[in-house]
Inverse folding.
């Protein structure tokens, strides 16, 4: 066995507080609390950041293609031939032509800028994140010339399926009074909620043919969106598509438009990990100070045990076990607290908001309507191992001091 019965008995005896060693036990208690809170906080923050990353990119890539093909010059008119060519390539799940443009939506004396996206109804239906997010109305309404708007936009303008909205495009038409912007009235056919504020508040979907008429782009689209079967093969598939459409279209993937956002999330995640690791490190220094004080306080006991036959290595193991026990217990309780908190974070958020009356997580600021958390068990294991290592390392110097204690010097004046 690594520790003898005698070593365990003495080590755990030192962990129990008596009046004479109360101050040492208080410091040990703070060390335990610090490690517990540090581990729990690190797990919670990393889980929330993982959840943010996964939710944002799953929704972004669910609404937008992994890659987009654009015309070399001007608008893209050969989109059907490109689409038919792409869908027969291995590794491509689907391809869909889209037409996008800015417009002004107005209703009930209110106006707001929106992004109008023209898409074929069958392509809209294939996107699970859209098809499964319909709150009111029916998808079939888009075939009848009606449009789809987000939940936030619907609530803001107080329009629902069956109501009318007015869209004004940047294109102009000549009139006896000069150039006037093109405005058309559409019926709301359905209201969706994809869980992202940006899309719920700023997107209007309509059929591709309607969008072409609205933006005066008959027979043309903005781009062809490509969805892959395996997003991990993005680089390989991009090269294959570039080779296949060489000279006919330009290829961009989602990283070209979201690289700065992705890099910012990754950098923030790494910085937060380093900052929160300092909490565990500070708690480990508390273990060092409490163990040094314990060694000093128990100098006579160490000397007596040495004179009765205990080896210096046995003293080393006693104080390593004493200090490590604080770290092990703190890490275990912290891991349980962090995992439990992360698994129920949305319910906890709602409870705190209901209790305080304050909005802690605004979807307008954080883009998502719910606080996400995704537990990465490899990260949890890494955090636990790091906390255990720091706790163990913090005991080495005090335990070494205890092992080097000379019994004669300790008992000289007794």
């Amino acid at each position: 066995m690594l520790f003898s019965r005698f070593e365990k008995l003495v080590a755990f005896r030192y962990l129990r507080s008596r009046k004479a060693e109360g101050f040492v036990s208080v410091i040990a208690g703070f060390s335990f609390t610090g490690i517990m809170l540090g581990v729990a906080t690190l797990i919670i923050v990393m889980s929330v950041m993982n959840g943010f990353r996964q939710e944002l990119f799953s929704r972004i890539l669910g609404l937008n293609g992994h890659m987009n093909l654009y015309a070399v010059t001007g608008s893209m008119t050969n989109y059907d031939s490109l689409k038919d060519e792409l869908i027969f390539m291995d590794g491509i799940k689907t391809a869909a032509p889209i037409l996008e443009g800015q417009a002004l939506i107005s209703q009930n004396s209110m106006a707001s800028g929106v992004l109008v996206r023209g898409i074929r109804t069958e392509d809209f239906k294939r996107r699970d994140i859209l098809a499964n997010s319909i709150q009111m109305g029916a998808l079939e309404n888009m075939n009848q010339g009606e449009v789809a708007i987000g939940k936030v936009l619907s609530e803001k303008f107080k329009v629902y399926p069956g109501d009318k909205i007015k869209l004004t495009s940047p294109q102009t038409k000549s009139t006896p009074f000069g150039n006037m912007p093109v405005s058309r009235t559409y019926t709301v056919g359905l209201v969706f909620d994809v869980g992202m504020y940006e899309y719920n508040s700023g997107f209007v979907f309509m059929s591709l043919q309607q969008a072409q008429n609205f933006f005066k782009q008959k027979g043309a689209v903005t781009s062809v969106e490509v969805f892959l079967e395996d997003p991990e093969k993005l680089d390989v598939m991009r090269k294959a598509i570039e080779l296949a459409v060489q000279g006919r279209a330009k290829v961009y993937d989602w990283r070209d438009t979201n690289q700065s956002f992705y890099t910012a999330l990754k950098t923030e995640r790494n910085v937060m990990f380093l900052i929160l690791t300092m909490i565990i490190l500070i708690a480990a220094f508390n273990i060092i100070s409490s163990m040094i004080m314990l060694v000093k306080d128990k100098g006579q006991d160490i000397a007596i045990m040495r004179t009765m036959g205990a080896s210096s290595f046995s003293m080393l193991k006693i104080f390593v076990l004493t200090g490590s026990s604080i770290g092990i217990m703190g890490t275990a309780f912290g891991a349980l607290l962090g995992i439990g908190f992360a698994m129920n974070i949305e319910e906890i958020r709602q409870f705190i908001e209901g209790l305080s009356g304050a909005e802690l997580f605004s979807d307008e600021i954080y883009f998502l309507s719910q606080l996400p958390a995704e537990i990465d068990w490899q990260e949890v294991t890494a955090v636990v191992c790091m906390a255990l290592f720091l706790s163990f390392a913090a005991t080495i110097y005090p335990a070494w001091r205890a092992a080097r204690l000379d019994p004669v010097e300790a008992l000289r004046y007794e």
About this structure: The first strand starts at residue 67 and ends at 70. The mean pLDDT is 81. The chain has two domains: 5-58+261-410, 72-248.
